[in-house]
Amino acid sequence: MSFYDKYQEYKNFDFEKFFNTLTDDDVLRAINKERINEIEFLTLLSHKAEKYLEMMAVKAKRLTAQHFGRVILLFAPLYLANFCVNRCAYCSFNIGNSILRKKLTLREVEEEGRAISSTGLRHILILTGESRNESPVSYIKECVQVLRKYFRSISVEVYPLEVEEYAELVEAGVDGFTMFQEVYDEEVYKRVHLGGPKRNYRYRLDAPERACKASMRSVGIGALLGLHDWRREAFFTGLHADYLQNKYPDVEISMSLPRIRPHVGHFQPECEVSDKNFVQIMLAFRLFMPRAGITISTRERPEFRDNLIGLGVTKMSAGSSTEVGGYGLREKSEGQFDISDGRSVEAIKSVIYKKGYQPVFKDWQAI
Amino acid sequence: MEDKLIIGGTEVNSRLFIGTGKFHSNRIIPDLIKRSGAQVVTVALRRIDFDSEEENMLNYIPKDCIIMPNTSGARNGEEAVRIARLARAAGCGNWIKIEVISDNKYLLPDNYETIKATEILAREGFVVLPYMSPDLMTAKRLRDAGAAAVMPLGAPIGTNKGLKTRELVKILIDEIDLPIIVDAGLGKPSEAAEAMEMGAAAVLVNTAVATAGDPVMMAEAFSLAVSAGRKAFISGMGSTKEYAEASSPLTGFLTE
Questions:
Q1: Which residues on A lie below 8 Å from B102 (Cβ)?
Q2: Chain A residue closest in CA terms to B84
Q3: Cβ proximity of A156 and A174 under 8 Å
């Protein structure tokens, strides 16, 4: 069985009809239950549940403190290369965009790593575009070897790999994996992924499971919010996380809520996701999966991010750059997207303390 | 009467153990430990940032405390062993709380893998305190493997649900000749007192203290409850009676 089978179960589900039959009592029952099932999770993503965000927030806050304590883990992304063979309508790295293409040399990786670790961060997420020629697994492994000196936890967000390749990365010192399906709706997926290997929906959909099979310690997933109706997309993201957690209970599963941001190109998102919608998704995630990590990136505005602290978020990126060479190299590429929260690690750290939470820099080490 | 708690040959002067994982700031830890009188403090090795003066949790723990690193993050016995060795090599002493969790949904300990890790680490000279689901056979095997104490959970970790495993923990207290330390699940001081009244040697709390409005005061409250419960236990509490006992007994006419 693959998550694709689960997706098929709900593919033709009449979401609108379901939402229209919901009553206030259905929502309240879901909020007040200790553990909710997938239909109750969908209930919390409904229009009807919008009235009850405050109740959901109170519960989400309690559950998050209970399971994670009053702490937020900080990390930074490091873009290794932006060469890419795909044509994704919403991404600056699209092969059709004429941007400066760059791939860090190992020396540059070291410089960037040193710059990031000097801010105190000990967790790093390394990213590449999809190019097996320019940034093959062997290159990623070499970068990991360099970065192990500076970081206690290294995660990858790269093109989908085979189980054996993930296992190689684990062996090299990678402990975390992130991959966004971008959009779970198969038809929309085909519409926005215009060319390149990324057009293969199934191969990407099963990548998180391949990472679990390779004994990756933590696995993060998400849908790029804005590409399609967010209620459905958030629902499938939650189902996917739940599927992985049940099948691979020793893996730490987390969900991200990346909202689409300005980028190079002319793509307009299909649907808007307001701050209120965003919070509803996050709260529903927490009530559905009390133990799962929730990651919020610098795509979000500073004041909005600050308000999310305590409501469910467990991991935040800080002091980020989405440019290849963005942490101090003289020559750097365009970023993958524009970030909103450009504050330094130090500034974010102090905000987290002010909110009554502890910023954590280290929550793992290679064993 | 002297009432000493001895673990692995060391006399421990407080029966309240504190976990450090969930506080809003490490800076409150020194005061919290002082006010609660706790001496054994558990720290997850995964969290200790040895490279940073400010972030290194160990710098906030008073020098007269016993550091009990834990193997949080271990998915099997082998990983727990590796983490324990790393902790000792990093200068965290030779106490180790074994935590092996292969189920992130409920965070219940894996007793089988815990026994395996206990065997190896006890042989290597660690003072081993395994965290476990209360089960008599497992506890016996842990004892035979060289555990210095056994740490059954009161309820799933972080739930603050109290001593839900009461009957099973009671059996461990009655049958296992090692300190039984209730770890995880205790949400209120009264529940810590309940465990102590029953004969637990100590309790370990983290979530209940860390998520309180005033963690320092809550740690103190737990400390008082633990002392009260312990005193009740050693004073020999009157047993609970099923029926009321009339002061003029119904069978008082029987003089034989």
A1: 249-250
A2: A367
A3: yes
